[in-house]
Specification:
The chain is α/β, with parallel strands linked by helices. It is built from 12 helices and 7 strands. β6, α8 and β7 form a beta-alpha-beta unit.
């Protein structure tokens, strides 16, 4: 029996054949090219390059023992930047932990992001979180949590609340392919479908859940097709094609904002680097496989498109690399001089108004530290 009989051919095709705009030679599909303004395209490219360079430097800082932990986005920049660029600044983002490009696109200073990696006095979360677990409320980017997939039902609930009060925002939630194996994903999809909430569920399918390959995570023919079971659309997009990601996300966002409900986007991409600085991918995948994806580098692919449009040159490339590397070097030099958060801040933010017992503990602890200093001197 033909297993395609259970869903329509149109749905099957949308869920398996990735949407693609950029061709290998740098040209684009004229029917799908969103024809974005030059300055907007150059901003997207600069953010992708800044993301790549920042990841590379912070990874090395971890290896030098100057920060404790890091997760790179190398190879997945198009999925992140292409999607966030399709939203309004008023829309909310619920990241997982590989979307460094989100605060960069929303205008968060690089210094603020780097300070969080050090957990110093300029860190928004006052050194209380692991590196990469950022929180930028001012840019409408929700706090990142370590547990896999917990942000998905949170995002759906947030979007449902917005719908109830009539706030015309859209919520976009990011997660990896591994998160689709979690119960939170299915709970969120069911709720989103039933209540038609204004949410876009964005899966960066980078082929691995730490060391577990996709074929060991699901027997489904794609992740996008899972949306059918929950009564809404799923679409598979070439995640290394920044314009294809933009087109798919823009359509999903406009549908959500007009009351059409959720969309599940599966961005087909690849995690070039390790899962984290605590991982060694050589133990579970071949170098040949990695090299095949290096040839599909989303930044190089987008650069060829900009050159074809006459928007970019070798000289501009050299200038951009010099600019972003200088920015990163200066930022790290400055951030490493910032002291840790003040000790007394340990007691802050637990309650809106500090209760008496906590105030007493704070005073006792500060007195102890003062006495210890006196004995040391």
């Amino acid at each position: 029996m033909d297993d395609a009989i259970f869903i329509s051919p149109e749905v099957q095709e949308a869920a398996e054949v990735p949407l693609t705009v950029l061709r290998e030679d740098g040209r684009s599909d004229p029917d799908l090219d969103p024809d974005l303004p030059k300055e907007f395209l150059l901003r997207m490219y600069r953010t992708m390059v800044l993301n790549r360079e920042l990841d590379d430097r912070l990874f090395k800082l971890q290896r030098q023992g100057r920060i404790g932990f890091y997760l790179t986005c190398t190879g997945e920049e198009a999925a992140v930047i292409g999607s966030v660029a399709a939203l309004n600044d008023e829309d909310w983002l619920f990241p997982s932990y590989r979307e460094t490009g989100l605060p960069l696109w929303r205008g968060v200073p690089v210094r603020k992001f780097v300070a969080q990696q050090y957990g110093n006095a300029e860190d928004n979360v006052k050194g209380r979180q692991m590196p990469v677990h950022t929180s930028f409320r001012e840019a409408r980017i929700m706090s990142i949590s370590s547990p896999v997939g917990t942000q998905i039902p949170q995002a759906v609930g947030f979007a449902w609340a917005a719908k109830i009060v009539g706030d015309p925002i859209v919520v976009l939630v990011y997660f990896g392919d591994g998160a689709t194996s979690e119960g939170d994903f299915h709970t969120a999809c069911n709720f989103a479908g039933v209540f038609k909430v204004p949410v876009v569920l964005f899966c960066r399918n980078n082929q691995y859940a730490i060391s577990v390959p996709l074929k060991r995570q699901t027997a489904a023919r794609s992740i996008a097709v899972k949306a059918v079971a929950y009564g809404f659309e799923g679409v598979r997009v070439d995640g290394n094609d920044v314009l294809a990601v933009y087109v798919a996300t823009k359509r999903a966002v406009e549908k959500a904002r007009s009351g059409g409900g959720p969309t599940l986007i599966e961005a087909l991409t690849y995690r070039i680097g390790a899962h984290s600085t605590s991982d060694d991918p050589r133990r579970y995948r071949s170098e040949e496989e990695v090299q095949q994806w290096y040839a599909k580098d989303p930044i190089e692919r987008f650069r060829r498109y900009l050159e074809w449009r006459g928007y970019w040159s070798e000289l501009q490339q050299e200038s951009l690399l010099e600019e972003v590397r200088d920015l990163i070097n200066r930022t790290i030099e400055e951030v490493e001089k910032v002291p840790p958060p003040p000790v007394e801040s340990l007691f802050d933010d637990v309650y809106a108004r500090m209760p008496r017992h906590l105030q007493e503990q704070k005073e006792a602890y500060l007195a102890y530290l003062k006495e210890a200093d006196r004995w040391r001197s």
